[in-house]
Amino acid sequence: MNYYNEGSFMAKTMEDLAKLVAILNDADLSPYGYDPDDAYETEGKFCMEIGERYGDIEAQMDEVADKIIKANLSVDFEIHYFGNAEGAYVLHDGVYECLGESAYHLRQEDDKDLLKEIYRRGLNRRICNDDIRSFMQSELESQYGLYEHHAKRAAVMAFEHYVNTEDASQYDGIQWAAEHYDPHAWIQISKETLPEYWDDFAIVIAFPDETNTLAQENHYTLHDCLHKLNDVKFFLDGIDAGGECGK
After folding, report:
1. What are the tens digits of pLDDT across the range 158-203?
2. Nearest to 236 by CA among 142, 167, 155, 134
3. Of 50, 58, 118, 218, which sits with the fewest C-beta atoms within 10 Å of its C-beta?
4. DSSP-assigned letters across all residues of 101-168
5. What's 186's DSSP letter?
6. Is residue 234 scored above 70 in pLDDT?
7. How far is residue 244's CA from residue 247's CA, in Å, rounded to a whole number?
8. Rounded distance between C-alpha atoms, residue 88 and residue 91, angstroms
């Protein structure tokens, strides 16, 4: 496998830079070694390039990141690799990530382009709805004593009541769910909100002839449910997608 690595390390202080150099040299990241004098100052920080470094350095970057974090150094880095594969090793604010190609390219996208794509997919609405359901779940746990598993399902009831009942507030939905939640019953959801539950819940499809089936377990896709099935109703069964159908 042929890889070429490029990028830089950024240290906040000379003291951090000196400790960083020791870590890099211990990891044998460069055959020539590093020296604090190799760094240059930019925007109040000390920057040092990785230099000409070929080959797979993932294990070494993992080691370097681990030592930087454990030493609590004010050091960030972003090292891009390409060749037979592409990605990056990134440490920022104490969080280390080894990014594959798609994740790396997504990281490079302009904020405006990302926002456009989020709005195009309708993800902004889903993010907002997820926050509302999370709040409802928290209230059902803290105010009504529901355990997490039940509170998550009851939060769906609360949200569906809130969005489908004229003039209902979020607290109206929470109270209604607390009063009507049955842990053994399915929870009906609308076709419009179905995509928001697909990954977290087992979905039950109820047909007009009063038969039903589990969607994911019987290989129905989300596209099938949204565009190929008519006159059906959708319910949540279990928390985990593909759970057993039991009512």
Report:
1. 999 998 899 999 999 999 999 999 998 889 999 989 998 998 889 9
2. 155
3. 218
4. HHHHHHHHS-HHHHHHHHHHHTHHHHHHHHHHHHHHHHHHHHTT---HHHHHHHHHHHHHHHHHSTT-
5. -
6. yes
7. 10
8. 10
- Which residue is it, tokens 């979905």? 203
- Contact criterion met (CB below 8 Å) for 126 and 163: no
Residue 240 has pLDDT above 80, yes or no: no
For strand 233-236 and strand 187-189, is the pairing parallel, antiparallel, or unpaired?
A: antiparallel
Spatial distance between the Cα atoms of 53 and 82, rounded to a whole number of angstroms:
11
Q: Which CATH number fits domain 3-108: 3.60.15, 1.10.1660, 3.30.420, 3.30.70?
A: 3.30.70
Is 247 a residue whose pLDDT tops 60? no
Contact in structure between 205 and 224 (CB atoms under 8 Å):
no
Residue 118 has pLDDT above 70, yes or no: no
Q: Are residues 78 and 50 in contact, defined by beta-carbon separation less than 8 angstroms? A: no
pLDDT in tens, 193-215: 999 899 888 999 999 999 999 99
Helix ranges restricted to H, the chain:
14-26, 58-70, 101-108, 111-121, 123-142, 148-164, 170-180, 194-197, 222-227
Copy the structure tokens of residue 50: 């990785």
* Angle between helical axes of 123-142 and 148-164 (0-180°, round to 10): 120
Domain boundaries, the chain: 3-108, 110-183, 184-247
